[in-house]
Specification:
It contains 17 helices and five strands. It is α/β, with parallel strands linked by helices.
Amino acid sequence: MKMLQLIKRICKQVLRDKRTLALLFLAPIFVITLLNYIFPDPNDEITITTIHVNEDIIAILEANDINVKEENELDVKNYLEQGHASAVLEEKDEEWTLTILNDNPMDEGRAIQSSAQAVMEYNLNGLSDYMEETSDKIEELMDNIQTMIAQLPPEIAERLDINMETDIDLDAEASAEIDMGEDLVTVEYIYGDENYTFFEILNPILVSFFVFFFVFLIAGMSMLKERSSGTLEKLLSTPIRKSEIVFGYLFGYGIFAVIQTAVIILYSVYILDMEIVGSMANMFIINILLSFVALGLGLLLSTFVNSEFQMIQFIPLVIIPQIFFSGMLKVDAMEPWLQWIAPIMPLYYAGNTMIDVVLKGFTFSEIIIPLLILILFIIIFVTLNIIGMRRYRKV
């Protein structure tokens, strides 16, 4: 009986809390819907640009759902960096070279596999044609020999002992004519080399994601504790201005956010041996700005919740979608209506800029625009925090 009363009380509490109900049912539906449209369909076409490649290989690529562009000459690095294709396949003296950026293992992995498969199929077709042609020649030769033998006197023909099947080694000749070795396609990398693992390419994104996630969580929870403990109420009863409160919390928690950012980056670099082509100082700048964005967002959302439970429920709505737009997946390959979401995601700028610095060696001047956008996010969240305090705290 007591248990039933407890169940009844909990049900009433949840049903009265409209925000909890909304987040409880809408948040998972939102995330599942997002995942359904974000992850690339394995049947989607990828683009490979070919330079002087045999038409048969192009036909095989197109038959395997690869979008093929044909070019004569181009600056491969600039071409790939501008996103015109996932890879460039070149043919010279029947040697095939595939060039990739090596900054996105998903599309580029399919490009390598598809190119190697196309070249192998082309070689197999060549081998089959060669075998068929050789077989026709042998058959013609045997017919001629039989004709010649038939024209000879019977006593001479009986003395001949010709075994046409064992005198010709078809396999040996075919192997000599067509190269069927393992390295059908030579893969060249604009950034890094073949030793780059999946984790090493995604690690810069993960560093930024965890900085963003933990700072957001700590900021939101801490601000909520300030409210529930009455500390914020006492503070608001003093002549202090709301902007001073917001900046006080921002820089107060910001000190620990900067220390946490430094620990995560140094651990990734010196313990996990993350290779950095660019400057480590630029990594610090990106992630410190991102941590202040997370602080501003965490403080802002904490004004709309009444419990830690409600704060955690914002994670699938606010945090998880960020990682899908952080450079892990190509935004250009997503549904068109999803592509407009990326520019409003702070991790879209931080994650892609981290890849530019860590893998590509971009300098400060080359990443200044995304840094300015992160600063704009900070300004927006600070402004909204000040407005939010005025509305919800009634001081």
